[in-house]
Amino acid sequence: MKTETTQKKEPHRSWNWRSLVSFHLLFAAIALLISGVALFVSPPGRFAHSTGWRLLGFDKEQWEAIHSLIGYVSALFAVFHLVLNWKALRNYLRDRARRVYRLKAEFIVALLLTIVVWIGSAYQIPPFGTVMDWGENIKESWEQQTVLPDTTTEEHETVEPVEEETIPPDTTVEEHDAGGPTGKWGQFTVEELCAQHDIPVADELAHLAAYGLEASPTTRVRTLSDGSIYAPSDVANIILGLEPGEHEEND
User: Fold this and answer.
1) Is residue 192 part of a domain?
2) Mean pLDDT, to the nearest integer, of 62-71?
3) pTM of the model
């Protein structure tokens, strides 16, 4: 007798868009976490360009591109995810709406938590401001350890670390003429420096604009430095009424 052996054919599997979207969002979240940490500890743009700084083989501009573009693509995939699952999501929300009174406390706490993180991050309220200060200190530590070429002169500028992180309120422009601003100037905003030296903020914003530095009262010295050819100490010099690099000429 002949025995017939039947082989079961695997059914043809159609492409699963939901799985594609889910896996992409998972991998994108990991990539955004890595690139976010890299940008958090990266040095300022001027320093990174001058020294050829790299992390895991990528420079700062590459990390910025990776973080931005993966974020944009992930946002599109998230919208696609909502479209694919809109019916299930609508039914879920409709069912939850009937029982929302049971989750009222959780809903309020989640909303308040989001608002607290938003406001705390925007206004640098501890501990949110502390986290950003850590990143600022890490960025400045790169400059304190390395001599950078000054793009405004042929001389070289060394950023020296100092113990004090605040400017004495009684410091005057004349006292800076002898040594010029040094230290962690990048952490201060324009209005903070103006307040400590009795300089009208509106006048100083116009003064900065004359040097090609577009700023608002809450703009940090570090931000102005990153977007220009000036070192943080040069930006501070401009705010205090000195010329960029004036303290170096008097050394």
Assistant:
1) yes
2) 86
3) 0.43
